[in-house]
């Protein structure tokens, strides 16, 4: 009887096992093509960055010679020293860190408060203000360079870091408000209502309750703002002239290496300066990679 029962169980399980074997594999033709596309995309992105880093250790003949993709004959940090001292990349990097740090801080402060109000409170003109912020996303920067220059000059802030910071904040707010408004709408309202019932003010509810809950979204948009402002070139060129070279940002310093070299271009020094500008942003992205992904997907998962 026991043997018969066991055989019956085995026979009953056999169709289910065969059915599982007949199910199509999730990694079919389209899965293979997606993996190939990801590999190609990775090579296209990582390749230039890796070559830039290796070219900073080469000499001019090695870079413009017959084998520009070959490894350098010797790994010398001389070009990094020239970029740091002679091209003043160190000073420009410190200027950029100061400008981007201050502008990102105030962008996140003002943007998060505006987004919270637009997402949580209903009042006359709510949608009009929101769409006014969103319309800033469709306005190219280069179309406003001339009037922007005169506005900043009339404020007495031309050739100053304060002028650059104010402009960075203005141009970063539209995307910040757009992103965080949608994120704040996904957060539960019960916690904020409970805090209000316990006597918490609107300000305390925002900073002590809602901001910690919105941490993934805040980190994501902070990183995006840092990347965008760090790589900005047009605005510093317009707002910081050649007469205040000591206030230049890193993008201006890198461009100056190429434009002032003439026929004696220092390509290793240029690529060393580029590497100095790339490495901090890579570190920031690698450190906060998980927070960025969780912030971008939090609304979809909700």
Automatic annotation (TrEMBL):
Tree of life domain: Bacteria
Keyword Transport listed: yes
Predominant place of localization: membrane
Region (Disordered), start-end ranges: 1-25
Domain ABC transmembrane type-1 residue range list: 93-288
Keywords for the protein's UniProt record, in alphabetical order: Cell membrane, Membrane, Transmembrane, Transmembrane helix, Transport
Transmembrane segments: 29-51, 92-118, 130-152, 164-184, 205-227, 267-288
Subcellular location: Cell membrane
Coiled-coil region(s): none
Record-linked Pfam families: BPD_transp_1
Membrane topology term: Multi-pass membrane protein
Similarity comment: family membership: Belongs to the binding-protein-dependent transport system permease family.
Protein name, as recorded: Carbohydrate ABC transporter permease
Classification lineage: Bacteria, Bacillati, Actinomycetota, Actinomycetes, Streptosporangiales
